[in-house]
Design brief:
- It is built from 13 helices and 10 strands.
- It is α/β, with parallel strands linked by helices.
- It folds into 3 domains: about 5-55, SH3 type barrels, CATH 2.30.30; about 90-400; about 415-440, no CATH class.
- The strands form 2 sheets. A 6-stranded mixed β-sheet has the order 6-7-8-5-10-9, with helices on both faces.
- Strand 1 and strand 2 (about 15-20) form a beta hairpin.
- Helix 11 runs parallel beside helix 12.
- The protein starts with a strand and ends in a 39-residue tail after the last strand.
- Residues about 50-55, about 380-400 and about 400-440 have low confidence and may be disordered.
Length: about 450
């Protein structure tokens, strides 16, 4: 170690600081007695000792960081792309290269991102039949949002792990897949670290909080002095929905001055408002630390049509709350007062009036899809459609936006019998076995 720092412990005596952990909150010290301990930094008398910087890399480490012979060559990348396209999938890294004929939709997307960055936020809904490229457009939106300096969270819904009626599971999946334009790390930890390095951003977030005990604001206060690495990691995972509330997290939150009853992230119940609020709070924090905002992208929303009636009501609550959080009550057709509240905790649908939140969701056209027509504001012009594919009688997919509403074109149904479970013309193992009904 090129630097030598002497520290003093009230009980163990003097020693030499070897390493720091948890952002400088834990010190590893070799004491004069020969014992070596890793202890909380605040236990030492000279707590203000500068955090040690890591030693310069050795020559061997520098050589190992150079590209190896196994680094993919352009020829290997090209072959990999071709093989991926044979499976009918566009490689994620080449999604913009293989986007053809969507200039109008891309322009609409760019304008929505610009409004989200410069104003309060925006919403877009992508509706079309199977195979029209909705998932492709969702990934395209992610790429363009990252390029515009947005933090991006995305997920694909299903009926088992991430059902539309479970806002907590949607939130957990979104935060676990959080991407940044300036860092390859996934998850919420990087954003919280940037916020802790900017006390003014943390203070501004706490001042703007519309509820007494905002989970995100309290977590940032507790992270300022977590005590040890386990508590630090637990708080980050808790506010990101990766773990449920436990004694370690509750004890850390209670150490924040004025907190007697820490908030809970509820798993079940009418919790759509709570997670729309949290996502808008994260978007506000992202803008305070220098990002453009938060882009929330949800794919495979067509599983909504397979839910039971009570499950659809909870899915409706979450998606309506997200639309209100992004657009603001003044710009939305949805009245926030009509979105159910949970009796255990009351949250507004949005953290602030200007949260810089962009929300995009994709779903398949069907008789039982989400009532998007009732949620988004109409406008007589400016709507866009995807180009038609083949000679199918189904019209092209339609892009609905909160400020650009189609008034004429709808995807129509054809005479082909449709699978009752998968909502498409046929599914593997059922079409042909019973004629016009699904064997499943």
């Amino acid at each position: 170690m090129s630097q030598d720092r002497r520290v003093e412990h009230p009980h163990l005596g003097s020693g030499r600081l070897l390493k720091t952990y948890a952002g400088g909150h834990e010190w590893e010290v070799l004491f004069e007695s020969g014992r070596r301990y890793r202890l909380p930094a605040h236990e030492f008398r000279n707590y203000a000792v500068p955090i040690l910087s890591p030693p310069p890399p050795s020559a061997e480490a520098a050589r190992s960081a150079l590209p190896s012979a196994r680094t993919p060559t352009p020829q290997f990348r090209a072959r990999q792309t071709v093989e991926t396209l044979r499976l009918g999938i566009v490689p994620v890294q080449d999604v913009e290269t293989f986007t053809i004929g969507l200039e109008t939709q891309t322009l609409s997307l760019d304008r929505a991102l610009a409004r989200s960055r410069e104003q309060s936020g925006d919403v877009q809904a992508v509706i079309g039949d199977y195979g029209y490229g909705k998932s492709h457009f969702v990934e395209l939106a992610a790429r363009r949002a990252l390029r515009e300096n947005f933090v991006v969270v995305s997920t694909s819904l299903d009926l088992v792990e991430v059902p539309p009626s479970k806002p907590y599971e949607i939130y957990r999946a979104l935060i676990g897949a959080m991407r940044y334009p300036d860092n390859p790390e996934r998850g919420l930890k990087w954003l919280l670290q940037k916020a802790l390095q900017s006390p003014s951003a943390v203070h501004a977030l706490q001042e703007q909080s519309p509820v007494p005990y905002c989970p995100l604001a309290l977590t940032l206060s507790a992270l300022a002095n977590p005590g040890n690495q386990w508590v630090y990691t637990g708080l980050v995972h808790w506010v990101g929905g990766q773990i449920k509330n436990n004694a370690l997290v509750r004890a850390a939150l209670k150490k924040v001055p004025g907190v007697t009853r820490p908030p809970t992230l509820y798993v079940n119940g009418e919790v759509g408002r709570q997670y729309a609020y949290l996502l808008s709070a994260i978007s506000t924090l992202a803008s305070l630390v220098g990002y453009s905002g938060l882009a929330v992208l949800v794919d495979e929303s067509e599983h909504y049509s397979l839910l039971k009636a009570n499950q659809r009501e909870r899915a409706d609550s979450f998606f309506q709350a997200m639309i209100c959080a992004a657009m603001g009550p003044a710009n939305s057709r949805i009245n926030p007062a009509h979105i159910p509240e949970d009796h255990r905790a009351s949250y507004p649908v949005s953290f602030s009036a200007a949260s810089h939140l962009f929300f995009l969701f994709a779903l398949t056209e069907s008789e039982n899809r989400m009532p998007v027509d009732d949620w988004l504001r109409r406008r007589s012009s400016g709507w866009t459609t995807a180009s038609s594919r083949g000679t199918s009688s189904v019209s092209s997919a339609v892009w609905w936006t909160a400020t650009a509403w189609p008034t004429a074109i709808r995807p129509t149904t054809d005479a082909t019998p449709r699978c009752a479970r998968l909502r498409r013309a046929s599914c593997r193992g059922c079409w042909g076995s019973t004629g016009s009904t699904c064997a499943r």
